[in-house]
Amino acid sequence: MKNIIKCLFIFLLVLSCEDHLDINTNPNTPQNVDKSFTLTAAQGSLATVIGGQLANLGGFLAQYHTQSPGASQYTNIDTYNMNIDFSNRLWNELYAGCLNDLNYVLTKSDEEGDTGSYLIATLLRTYTFQVLTDMFGDIPYSEALLGSENISPNTDFGEDIYLGLINEIDTALNKYNSNPIASTVGPQDVIYSADIKEWIKFANTLKLKLYMRMSYTQQSNSSAVMTLLNEDNFITSDAIFAPYEDAEDKANPFYDVQIDEFGDVNNIASNSLLLFYDLNSDPRIEAVYRVNSTNIFTALDQGDRANHVGDQATDYSRPNIIATTPVYLMTVSESYFLQAEALIRYNGGTNAKSKYDSAISNSFITYGLDATEAQVFTNTGGAYEYVASTDVETAIRQVMIQKWASLANINNIEAFFELNRTKYPEITTLGSQDYSIGNLVVSVSSVLPGTQTPNSLFYPDSEESRNPNITQKASLTEKIWWDMKL
């Protein structure tokens, strides 16, 4: 598989020496491999999925891009017609690759009393399981990764997985705090170079994300959220995986497949986001999209390829992703948006404006723009000025529209999860949308009835065929457990 080869090349880049890696050795069955090398492989595996297949999928479902009329590679996504084979690769990569490698790191760290590395591996494991359960719902968790001890693991309820993940984070933090041993993995940790202070900030931010995902459910926990907010120890630098080069099999995974391998012919800008930027004179349009062959920004309504037969991808703007674009796991902007939402829900909105403004400023920074440009939009009278409201949903909508606008090409699948959770931006029928305020439309080519859109993926055929404890869902419209808002 090309993605596995990619991970191995990334591994090479980080080690900076070919002698350290035998590409014929399966990293998922290590014997006495230094755990730091395995951690790098796990991070590369996770980044390949988040920044590759899920960046592509999330970009369609969050309506950052749509299928070009001149090609047809992803009409199954644009028509909401993904089948049971669609997720085979990402499921196998995350379970057999990333999570299996992280388990090895956890075992070795425990044996060596390396509480710092144990914390890092736990947080990456938690993040990975969060993505899997947010994508599929009930998944193997408590019985997963046991190898020959259990080849048919039962699934756990999504809400139980979330509580288990929070407990894993707390356990790893307590283990480190009671015996703070600096991680030995050093620069093989490509994300934060084994700086445990940064990973503790990541832990708090990840916990806040998990708690906020539960905000519409009975598991909503205002006390735990306010404790985190009062501690105020969240990420201050983006969590990125970025050892990419402009070379074959060493590039950003989206670029490597969609642009280099497939020729940049499929993904074109969707009007949903491009016109939101354009109608608000938002300079992020230049960071997220490239101009077309006539040097203008232009896009299609989502799924509207049949009405533009003969058009090619070059007639439209396309995602502005280059070979060296990092893969983002979490950003400072996302952290501030989470804090703003939490303050609106659980603290009467006090200080929400400050967090909201900081979120937009940091979004501009992540896109390589000047933070002072953001102030034009957030100051009084600006297009994105935060307006306090006694109606919680009215206030939250402002946050979520800007969060959606900040995640394009950054973490597309996270935008899809948040769309499902909060219902912002609203999905409406073509003709009744207002792109300037942030609206999505039902794909023009949708095969689903009425205004239905996907909420989750089918379990992969590769897992269902081997595991009798997997019960396939009836439809892509089956909701994830936290998707409770009407």
The helix tally amounts to: 17
Please write the string of helix (H) and strand (E) elements: HHEHHHEEHHHEHEHHEEEHHHHHEEH
CATH topology: Serine Threonine Protein Phosphatase 5, Tetratricopeptide repeat
Major beta sheet, strand line-up: 1-5
Percentage of residues in helical conformation? 40-55%
The coarse silhouette is: globular
Question: How many domains make up the 3D coordinates?
Answer: 1
Q: DSSP strand (E) fraction? A: 5-15%
Unreliable stretches, pLDDT < 50, 5 or more residues?
1-29
For the terminal residues, how far apart are their CA atoms?
41 Å
Radius of gyration: 22 Å
In CATH's first tier, which class applies?
A: Mainly Alpha
Q: Strand count, sense and closure of the main sheet?
A: 2 strands, antiparallel
Q: What is the second-level CATH architecture?
A: Alpha Horseshoe
What number is the mean pLDDT? Answer: 93
Number of strands: 10
Structural class: mainly alpha
Description:
By secondary structure, the chain is mainly alpha-helical. It has a single domain (2-21, 37-246, 325-464), classed as Serine Threonine Protein Phosphatase 5, Tetratricopeptide repeat. Helix content is 48%, strand content 6%. It is built from 17 helices and ten strands. The chain has a two-stranded antiparallel sheet with strand order 1-5. A two-stranded antiparallel ribbon has the order 2-3. α1 (2-15) packs across α2 (35-61), α2 (35-61) runs antiparallel to α4 (88-112) and α5 (115-136) runs parallel beside α7. The longest helix is centred in the N-terminal third of the chain and has 27 residues, at 35-61. The radius of gyration is 22 Å and the shape is globular. The relative contact order is 0.14.
